[in-house]
Amino acid sequence: MKKCFFGILAITLFININVYSQKSIEDLFDDTIGKHNLPLNNGKFYFNTYRTNTTHPFFFSDKFILCTIKYDHQDYNKINLKYDINRDVLVFKPFGESENYGTILIENKVNEFILHNKKFVNLSISSNQISNGFYEENFIAKNFIFYIKHKKSKRESIKNQEIFMEFETFNEFLILKNNSFIPIKNKKHIVNLFPNYKKEINTFYNENAKQENDNKTEFFEKIFRFIDQLNSNN
Questions:
Q1: Angstrom distance (rounded) from CA 81 to CA 69
Q2: What distance in Å separates the CA atoms of residue 61 and residue 3, rounded to the nearest whole number?
Q3: CA-CA distance, 107 to 177, in Å (whole number)?
Q4: Alpha helices in the chain (DSSP H)
Q5: What mean pLDDT value characterizes the chain?
Q6: pLDDT tens digits, one per residue of 135-162
C-alpha cells in the first residue's frame, strides 16, 4: 500500500515538474502528503493561558501567519506560525486545527524562519552573558552582522477588579564580528567595536538622541547601517 502511495506521489510530482517552480513543487509535496503528517507536529502542546487586555506575548501579532521555515534542515512553505517571545518558543498550528492552540516546535531542530518579513536564525552561543535561541538577522554588513533578540516581560495588572497579564517589549542586541558575538547596550560598546569611527559615532548619537530614547531598536538599526556605510566609503 505504501509503495503504491509513494508511486502515485512520484508520478504526480513528475507531471508537474515542468509547470511549477522549485518553491511550488515543495508546496505540492506538502499538500500531497498532508500538512498534518509533517515532522513539525512532533513538539509539545501549546496553549496560551494568559488573560490579557491590550497586549500579548507574541512577536508583532498574536495571530498565526503563513511563513517559511527550515526545520531539521528541510524547507517548508506556507506553514502557520507565531512566535511567543516571552517564552521564546515558536508555535506551529497544525493544518485544519483551531487558532486557540498549537505545537511548540523543537528548538534545536529549527534552523531559521521568516515571520512578518523578518528572518530569524537559531543561534547557539557559548557565553553566560548572551542568551541562546532565535535572533532576528537584522542586517548583514561588510564586516559584521547585527542581530536582535526580541523579548517581552510580563507583569500582572488589575482593571475593574480583574487580573490581567500585561507584556512589555525589551530587546537585546548582538554584533557578530571577527567570529565573536558581542552584546551591545550603549555607545561605549559601539565605539569599542569601531574605534576608527569614534568621532562619527559621537556625532550620530548627538543628532539622534531622541530616537535612542524613544525606540532603541530602530536607533541601533540606523546606526549600524551608518557604520557600514562608513566602512564602504573607506
A1: 9
A2: 43
A3: 25
A4: 2-16, 22-33, 187-193, 198-207, 209-214, 216-233
A5: 85
A6: 999 999 999 999 999 999 999 998 888 8
